[in-house]
Design a protein that fits this description.
The protein is α/β, with parallel strands linked by helices. The protein folds into 2 domains: 7-265, NAD(P)-binding Rossmann-like Domain (Rossmann fold, 3-Layer(aba) Sandwich); 269-465, N-(1-d-carboxylethyl)-l-norvaline Dehydrogenase, domain 2. It is 46% helix and 11% strand. It has 20 helices and 11 strands. A 5-stranded parallel sheet has the order 5-2-1-6-7, with helices on both faces. It has a 3-stranded mixed sheet with strand order 4-3-9, with helices on both faces. The chain is globular. Residues 5-14 and 137-143 have low confidence and may be disordered. Its EC number is 1.1.1.17.
Length: 466
């Protein structure tokens, strides 16, 4: 089965794959999404595809890539169809997603993107551009995302068109506020009046998203073609678990995603707090410790008895006790058990390199807040400190067996220069570590841990604190 072929012409073996059951030509574009990567296709597009399967045809999605043309080149040959494969520990399922009605590249098609954004049918703009995309100055041309959004809102204002809602789906502590700040800042370059109108009139709901989606490898593509007879140039591998919680605050029509499992709530903060500190925080620790141990995938690291025990204790003893205990749908004991099962799923095998990227953004967002909370509460925190020590040791770019580690971080040169002076020096970066450098006992513990990692190795060091 080649995805450029229409469902009516698919050969019999492809019937093992769930195909769009709706008329794609009847889909009306209502959503523009910036940042079409694996996660967006496995998560948000899958939800909108399920909505279309319920014959809700007025929530089609226009996908917008940022700068790289590769995704568009693949999708253009497949009529914007792609395959999402859910790999569980015992079985896998495949589904062709057809809800994307158009794909544009912002770097080349800015005018076309702007035209879609001012279409009155567009009621929602969503974002997955990574946390770095919201930073002052941005990266990889990403400021143009907010520039074009501000320009579109300006034109809609002038023409009396209701503004769309802007929904960030990035893993940020307050992604709604981050999106608002970025759009308002871009608007201020046009006029203070526009910026004030956006701040007053446009909704930026908060959200929490969760689905582990590793990078698709050439081997994954070959396996999918063999297993499901699907010739897809860029399929998505993901896990069965998926969660999406959205603040119920829309300036335009709200998509009926609650019909397909999305939870609309008054306050996303407790959901996000639990998810980011437990899943993303544990991911940080697992990534750095697992890499130093020589592992390359999450399931391999979790199968290491010492690392697996460490992650379980980190979640149960040092992170979970500091979190809200009565959030509907987020019972902490069950969520922790689910996370451990997900991390250890060998069918997904998420790469540790992906978890380790952008540590200077991820650590202060996901893991260090638990450490600061533990310090304030006077609670045990050795396992959290060990994660910090592992990150600082990882930044050297050389593993404990002298193997080369490719470190990806926008602030790598700055971090390495300070790390070369010793752990205490790098901990003085207050925009990353807050006041950690002033906690003398914790600084000494981190220094001891790094020395132990170098001289005794990872397993003996970890056993000291378990």
């Amino acid at each position: 089965m080649a995805l450029r072929r229409t469902p009516s012409t698919l050969p019999a073996p492809a019937r093992r794959v769930d195909l769009p059951s709706y008329d794609r030509t009847a889909l009306t574009p209502a959503v523009v999404h910036f940042g079409v990567g694996g996660f967006h296709r496995a998560h948000q597009l899958s939800y909108f595809d399920e909505l279309a399967s319920l014959r809700v045809n007025d929530w089609g999605v226009v996908g917008v890539g940022i700068s790289s043309p590769r995704m568009g080149q693949v999708l253009s040959g497949q009529d914007n169809l792609f395959t999402v494969v859910q790999r569980g520990s015992t079985a896998s399922t495949a589904r062709v997603v057809g809800v994307m009605v158009e794909y544009l590249l912002l770097a080349e098609d800015r005018d076309a993107v702007l035209a879609r954004l001012i279409d009155p049918r567009i009621r929602l703009v969503t974002l997955t551009i990574t946390g770095d995309g919201y930073a002052a100055g941005g990266t990889s041309g990403r400021p143009s995302v907010f520039t074009v959004i501000a320009a579109a809102l300006d034109l809609r204002r002038q023409r009396g068109i209701t503004p769309f809602t802007v929904l960030s789906c990035d893993n940020l502590p307050d992604n709604g506020a981050a999106a608002r700040s970025a759009v308002v800042a871009a608007a201020e370059q046009r006029s203070t009046e526009l910026a004030a109108w956006i701040d007053r009139s446009v909704a930026f709901p908060d959200s929490m998203v969760d689905r582990i989606t590793p990078v698709t490898s050439p081997g994954d593509r070959r396996w999918i073609e063999q297993e499901f007879q699907v010739n897809d140039g860029w399929p998505v591998i993901t896990e069965p678990f998926s969660q999406w919680v959205i603040e119920d605050r829309f300036g335009n029509e709200r998509p009926p995603l609650d019909r397909v499992g999305v939870r609309y709530v008054d306050d996303v903060a407790p959901y996000k707090l639990i998810k980011t500190r437990m899943l993303n925080g544990a991911h940080c620790a697992l990534g750095y410790l697992g890499t130093l141990a020589g592992h390359r995938r999450t399931d391999e690291a979790m199968a290491d008895p010492v690392i697996g025990r460490y992650v379980a204790k980190l979640l149960a003893d040092e992170i979970a006790p500091l979190l809200p205990q009565d959030v509907p749908g987020m019972e902490l004991g069950e969520y922790r058990r689910t996370l451990i099962e997900r991390f250890g799923n060998p069918a997904v095998g998420d790469g540790l390199a992906r978890l380790c990227r952008r540590g200077s953004t991820k650590m202060p967002a996901y893991l260090l807040p638990s450490l600061h909370a533990a310090q304030a509460a006077g609670r045990p925190r050795d396992l959290l400190l060990l994660a910090v020590a592992a990150w600082l040791r990882y930044l050297h770019g050389v593993g404990l067996r002298n193997e080369t580690i490719e470190v990806e971080d926008a602030r790598l040169a700055e971090l390495r220069a300070l790390a070369a002076q010793g752990p205490a020096a790098v901990l003085t970066l207050t925009d990353v570590f807050a006041d950690l450098a002033h906690h003398d006992d914790d600084v000494r513990t981190i220094e001891t841990m790094i020395s132990s990692l170098d001289h005794r190795g990872l397993t003996p060091t970890m056993r000291t604190y378990l």
